[in-house]
Design goal:
This protein is α/β, with parallel strands linked by helices and 322 residues long. The protein contains twelve helices and twelve strands. Helix 3 crosses helix 11. The longest helix is centred in the N-terminal third of the chain and has 17 residues. The radius of gyration is 21 Å and the shape is elongated.
Length: 322
């Protein structure tokens, strides 16, 4: 009995709800307006800017207060951002996790404080935090399928034979892990499709350019590039051109996201194709939270429908891209 009381006092001192810990997911009262947090991972590319705008626009439309933070590419800062939202007693938190492991602990801390969390576009380590227990749901794309679709297109384009450089996303992030796995699992059926170098470009255009410049020196015979996002693909295009190679002819590129600059690169013949990863999360995110407050059963994953862009539809889609 003394041990239970001592534990209760310790949790209370930490500002955590014993009831929430015992009951799993916190309840959310039905209200006209909410104060919600949105912990963004970074704002250094068009995809993130489009996602943030979508969240801000939907909050404004509903008349909700949005507490917005930008982790500037730091998992440690994002953990601190979540701590700040907990201290501000927001009603719920929308989180785009920078990395899987550090943010799993932040998710559990929010749940223990009685604040429901919905993950957007990136997941957390499933061995450390689970949907329906530690957080409500994950809303986003099927990253493994994105990698598979990119691999399928490239394999057909290259007739099953290519010397590939892979530009990976942020190390430890779910899109980087899954897009790598999806691509690798597909091409293992084709022995002529060989990845000769794979290195992170951190989902950034300039970093992608720098990494591509370095890898090109070691692998001048490269015939294809698989980039985990458009920004790195665009950086790779710049590096190829600086090296005197013609992207789209000497080297075929495929990437993921579907941003406007990538569609223009397809139109210009420099990028072969890109798998869409829709950034406009606002409507679905806020609708899901409202459904949760009403007590509806929310699935563990809500997968966004994504399109595929190549020379056949890039021009027609340019005006509606981000």
């Amino acid at each position: 009995m003394k041990r239970i009381l001592a534990t209760t006092v310790t949790l209370a001192a930490a500002g955590l709800s014993v009831f929430a810990l015992a009951q799993g997911l916190p309840k959310l009262a039905v209200k006209k307006t909410y104060k919600v947090g949105f912990a963004q991972t970074e704002s250094n590319n068009p995809w993130r800017l489009a996602q943030t705008k979508s969240m801000q626009d939907e909050a404004k439309k509903l008349g909700w207060q949005l507490v917005y933070t930008d982790a500037a590419g730091s998992a440690a800062k994002q953990v601190s951002d979540v701590d700040s939202m907990i201290a501000q007693r927001v009603d719920a938190i929308f989180l785009a996790p920078r990395e899987e492991k550090p943010l799993a602990a932040a998710v559990k801390k929010a749940r223990a404080a009685g604040i429901p969390v919905i993950l957007l576009d990136r997941n957390v380590d499933q061995s450390l935090a689970k949907p329906g227990v530690d957080y409500v749901t994950f809303i986003g794309s099927d990253f493994v399928k994105e990698g598979q679709r990119a691999a399928e297109w490239l394999t057909k384009k290259m007739n099953g034979k290519a010397t590939i450089i892979e530009l990976q996303g942020t190390t430890g992030s779910s899109p980087a892990n899954d897009r790598k796995a999806g691509f690798a699992n597909y091409i293992k059926k084709y022995p002529g499709m060989k990845i000769v170098a794979s290195q992170t470009g951190d989902f950034a255009r300039d970093k992608g350019r720098q990494v591509m410049e370095t890898l090109l020196q070691a692998h001048p015979d490269v015939t294809a590039v698989y980039a985990h996002n458009d920004e790195m693909a665009l950086g790779a295009i710049a590096a190829l051109e600086a090296a005197g190679k013609k992207p789209g002819k000497d080297v075929i590129l495929v990437s993921i996201d579907g941003e406007k600059d990538a569609l223009q690169a397809i139109i210009d013949g420099k990028l072969g194709a890109t798998v869409e990863c829709n950034p406009r999360f606002g409507p679905k995110a806020f609708e899901t939270l409202q459904r949760y407050a009403r007590g509806e059963k929310i699935p563990a994953k809500i997968i966004n429908p994504d399109r595929f862009f190549d020379a056949s539809n890039a021009k027609a889609s340019l005006s509606t891209s981000y």
